[in-house]
């Protein structure tokens, strides 16, 4: 996410595109976190 924010700050990505990518990456991180939690609880 750091790199997306950096690209947005450098005006390499538009605000709309950067926000969409940040939202998507946040959702992916949450999904991976839930998977890890589920796997830990099964062991």
The radius of gyration computed from the alpha-carbon positions, rounded to a whole number of angstroms, is: 14 Å
Cα distance spanning the termini: 30 Å
Helical proportion? over 70%
The overall pLDDT average reads 95
Please give the count of helices.
2
Q: What is the percentage of strand-forming residues?
A: under 5%
Beta strand count? 0
Q: Structural class given helices, strands, pairing?
A: mainly alpha
How would you sum up this structure, described in words?
The chain has 43 residues and is mostly helical. The protein has 2 helices and no strands. It has helices at 2-9, 15-42. Helix 1 (2-9) runs antiparallel to helix 2. The longest helix is centred in the middle third of the chain and has 28 residues, at 15-42. The radius of gyration is 14 Å and the shape is elongated.
Blueprint (SSEs and pairs):
Blueprint: H1 2-9, H2 15-42
Quick summary:
The protein is mainly alpha-helical and 43 residues long. 84% of the residues lie in helices and 0% in strands.
Characteristic key phrases:
43 residues, mainly alpha, 2 helices, 0% strand, elongated
């Amino acid at each position: 996410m750091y790199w997306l924010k950096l690209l947005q700050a450098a005006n390499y990505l538009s605000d709309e595109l950067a926000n969409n990518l940040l939202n998507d990456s946040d959702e992916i991180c949450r999904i991976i976190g839930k998977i890890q939690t589920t796997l830990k609880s099964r062991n």
